[in-house]
């Protein structure tokens, strides 16, 4: 199953925060978002509004467009991997499908 957008955005935000060596408290204080809510957003449990995402991105000093682009790229990779894994692997090559010929019946 493909991850939800809110989960992927949360992962991108958490990764950015950790790469900066920042704590949840530091980012939540700067963004003026409750610590608990920021944690829920990072874990993909809450769907943040665009205003909230903008505030979090501002606190992390990263453009919202970068977060969304990174999330989109991650979702694309996951979707392509799911399609590749679900392709022929689920169909036995010896399976044959017979489609009967259509027979028209004239009505008098």
Chart the SSEs and their pairings.
Layout: H1 5-19, H2 24-31, H3 35-42, H4 50-60, H5 64-86
Domain HTH cro/C1-type: 13-67
Organism: Mycolicibacterium pulveris
Pfam families: HTH_3 (PF01381)
What would you note in describing this structure?
The chain has 108 residues and is mainly α. It has a single domain (5-90), classed as 434 Repressor (Amino-terminal Domain). The protein contains 5 helices and no strands. It has helices at 5-19, 24-31, 35-42, 50-60, 64-86. Helix 1 (5-19) packs across helix 5 (64-86) and helix 2 (24-31) packs across helix 4 (50-60). It is elongated, with a radius of gyration of 23 Å.
Summed up:
The protein is mainly α and 108 residues long.
Keywords:
elongated; single chain; 108 residues; 434 Repressor (Amino-terminal Domain); mainly alpha
Order of helices and strands: HHHHH
In the CATH scheme, the class would be Mainly Alpha
Percent in strands = under 5%
CATH architectural label: Orthogonal Bundle
What gross morphology would you assign? elongated
Number of helices: 5
What does the largest sheet look like?
A: none
Please state the structural category: mainly alpha
CATH topology: 434 Repressor (Amino-terminal Domain)
- Overall number of structural domains: 1
User: Measured on Cα atoms, how large is the radius of gyration?
Assistant: 23 Å
Domain HTH cro/C1-type: 13-67
Keywords: DNA-binding, Transcription, Transcription regulation
GO molecular function, one term: DNA binding
InterPro entries: ClgR-like, Cro/C1-type_HTH, Lambda_DNA-bd_dom_sf
């Amino acid at each position: 199953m493909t991850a939800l957008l809110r989960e992927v955005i949360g992962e991108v935000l958490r990764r950015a925060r950790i790469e900066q060596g920042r704590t949840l408290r530091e980012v939540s204080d700067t963004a003026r978002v409750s610590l608990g809510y920021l944690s829920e957003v990072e874990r993909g449990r809450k769907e943040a509004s665009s205003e909230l995402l903008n505030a979090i991105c501002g606190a992390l000093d990263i453009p919202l467009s970068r977060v969304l682009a990174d999330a989109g790229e991650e979702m694309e990779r996951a979707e392509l991997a799911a399609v590749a894994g679900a392709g022929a692997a689920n169909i036995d090559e010896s399976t044959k499908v017979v489609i009967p010929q259509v027979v028209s019946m004239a009505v008098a």
